[in-house]
């Protein structure tokens, strides 16, 4: 009987220890630092829109024997006498009147056979509307015939005018 009690006591102790081990709560590891925040890289700021570049435009080309104080041809014509001084008044404007726009304005005068009579260029800082005058004259007089004026802006022909000396 003692033996039975001993077996019962051992069996009870064994069951109690198994019960304690089985019911023991598993310990969670302690986190001491927070994980790094996951942030997406910031999108680059949009590039600023560049300011429009101011441009020069040739608006008018008038030919005549005289030019007024305003640098405009007083009486535009396409026919001249051999002894006339021939003036070309070139009207220009800029897309932004407040901005100075440096450019090269030119005039190429040619005779009917393609021979260059005269070439002029002027470096101009354009600002808003303006007039530039180009002039040709010949002390002995121009030969009669047909002529052409080419107006150039930065080396490119932008306007032409045909005229005649009679």
TrEMBL record:
Biased composition, class Low complexity, residue ranges: 30-42
Region called Disordered, residue ranges: 29-51
Superkingdom of the source species: Bacteria
Protein name: PKD domain-containing protein
Species the sequence originates in: Lysobacter soli
């Amino acid at each position: 009987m003692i033996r039975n009690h001993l077996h019962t006591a051992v069996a009870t102790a064994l069951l109690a220890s198994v019960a304690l081990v089985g019911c023991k709560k598993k310990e969670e590891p302690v986190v001491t630092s927070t994980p790094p925040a996951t942030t997406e890289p910031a999108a680059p700021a949009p590039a600023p829109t560049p300011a429009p570049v101011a441009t020069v435009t040739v608006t008018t080309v008038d030919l005549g024997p005289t030019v007024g104080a305003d640098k405009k041809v007083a009486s535009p014509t396409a026919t001249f006498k051999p002894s006339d001084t021939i003036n070309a008044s070139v009207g220009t404007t800029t897309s932004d009147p407040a901005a100075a726009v440096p450019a090269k304005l030119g005039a190429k005068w040619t005779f009917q056979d393609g021979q260059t009579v005269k070439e002029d260029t002027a470096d101009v800082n354009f600002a808003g509307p303006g007039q530039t005058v180009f002039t040709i004259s010949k002390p002995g007089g121009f030969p009669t015939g047909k002529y052409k004026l080419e107006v150039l802006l930065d080396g490119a022909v932008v306007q032409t005018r045909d005229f005649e000396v009679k």
